């Protein structure tokens, strides 16, 4: 319902892909209750349906079905349903605790392996005895854990409402339900910062300043081949160049990019080891090959056109931030001075240059240095200054076939519509799993009936808000005496050749 799926490769795993639980890695099997949380794979593993109906998994790709706001909405709706007419917070809490425990018992009585499916992982068995012990433990802690859960869930969703009122007036209703595959992580975090300022009497008055001034809708990014995004040091080792991170390049250091990811998904205790392992994993994670036919001859023609018109921008380790592409600049401007300072201080608090952690038995210092140069005293490199990231990076386009819809705000359904902007549809269907092999992108045409097996996707109206706008990357760009042709409306054969080549990246 919120867009997470069962990954057939995780045989017997008791939850959908994208949900992890702490029992998998806790030192002592029954040392604590299991906490479930979203994992990187919730957003960064996608799927495409092949011709025979089977799924190809896209590790490091995009789960365009995942609706993280939709999840939060449903939690608050469920709580409201339990409260009914009760308005006294203490009584509301009791109602929720009773309801949770009753549901827990009912499920477990129906099936003694209801929650863990008798799953085993390495040498840990999540069998009937484990499940029973966890339930007993949970019941002991329910009086403290459940109220905390309620408080966080309600505050987070209310915070989102405050942000939405300020920066998404045109799409209030839609964005309070969430757009699958898309989020505004920075605004979401800003809402949390808002509450921590507001709840402190010394800073309460300043809380509104923590709210973002721009709307920053962002599609989930692919995270493979991160080495093509990793920066280099400048000559005197004081600054990072030739790299980027996130759509506007503002978190260049891989370790902080991965820490930001954990902060975004609301990990209460950031585990910097996860970020360090993610760094290792994503550095050379390959993109999946295009699973349908490619016309090699046509692709070769496209390669030459790409070299002439695209490669100067779309190349590995291009740290340049482009401000003249014409796409909506909200995402690029969302991290103003206060948000940037706040982000730097939370990133470096979580992982300071002196922090030592146990990395699989050996001590490691994940934030001590980058490529052999110390990060001590270089806090500002954990997020670049606003004036340096007020535009978008041109990504290397590796595995671009699997990354539709396109642009940072996911407003253009296919590569064809990227290159033939005159035909871009204002409305299209987003987050289907079928593939449009002709225009190259996920099936988008509202006139094509959805896959009969499952009604997939939702209609996105890009005209509703400037933040969803599909304009930009639609006019040729002049750079000195060189013209880059971005609008191929008058040369569709050329566009088709480039698209054929893009399939091979
Ligand atoms: C709720 C969905 C979601 C989850 C879960 C998530 N991410 Fe992301 N990720 C995003 C979005 C959206 C972006 C684009 C952010 C932007 O620029 O605004 C992104 C961007 C990234 C990038 C930047 C890629 C680049 O080329 O610059 C990396 C790296 C990354 N995520 C790693 C992770 C890791 C590691 C985890 C797990 C700890 C994770 N993400 C969990 C949604 C998610
Ligand atoms: C002057 C630099 C520049 C040139 C030349 C250029 N692009 Fe881009 N391109 C960008 C930037 C910057 C973005 C990101 C814009 C955004 O997301 O708002 C982008 C985005 C894209 C995207 C979407 C990427 C994604 O992950 O959604 C595709 C596809 C693309 N360009 C293809 C091309 C092709 C093909 C050409 C050549 C015909 C080309 N570009 C020429 C700068 C350039």
Automatic annotation (TrEMBL):
Keywords from the named record: Heme, Iron, Metal-binding
Keyword Protease: no
Pfam families tied to this protein: Cytochrom_C, RoxA-like_Cyt-c
Organism name: Methylobacter tundripaludum (strain ATCC BAA-1195 / DSM 17260 / SV96)
Keyword Heme attributed: yes
A GO term for molecular function: metal ion binding
UniProt superkingdom: Bacteria
SUPFAM superfamilies: Cytochrome c
Domain Cytochrome c: 297-505
Protein name: Cytochrome c class I
